[in-house]
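During the reporting period the student researcher (J.K.) took over the structure-prediction task from the postdoctoral fellow and processed the backlog of single-chain submissions. One of the processed entries is reproduced below for the supervisory committee.
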Amino acid sequence: MKEKIKKFRETFKELWKIPRYNALIKLGLYFVFFLVFGSIFVLNRVPKKKNPEKEITINKNSYEFSYNINDNIIKGKKNKNITFTYNDIEYTIEDENITCDLDDCNIEFKYIFDFFTLDKIEDYIKNGELISKTEYTTGDIEYKYNINNSKIMEYFNSENGFEIIKNNNKYTINLENYNILDKIILEYK
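J.K. obtained the following structure tokens:
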């Protein structure tokens, strides 16, 4: 074994003295150096979370929701009908009719259930224009859509569309152009 090492050293020294082989040896050593450190860099890199859509599947016939409308919270459930709580009063919407424990069940935010249910928001998104897609280091993906819906624009008496931001199980609806409220945040599970 020692003879092989000694013979290798002698051969290496002889080749090192020849300028052509000297350059090839240096080039080979550089190649090995960058190959080793490149491999270490690639293998030790923190892998990006591969979760392209991170879509939460939900039964659209039965889910819980929470609306935040200018700091007014409406929480409820959608099954065959919609039940929710607003100002500590429980309401039920069944076939467009609102019932509650009070004599007058008129609620100022009824248009939310006319225009901004989960099904309707997803329909708006299908027909809307994707403005941007942002991927965060956490793996979350945020989509921003521009929506021009004539029924909503007519209801709010506006010529402007509105914006929907979708992030996992949360929709933020920017209605800053409508003078009634700034935004609606819908979270569902």
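The committee noted the following: The beta strands are 63-69, 72-78, 82-86, 89-94, 97-100, 129-135, 141-147, 162-167, 170-174, 183-188.
J.K. will present the remaining backlog at the next meeting.
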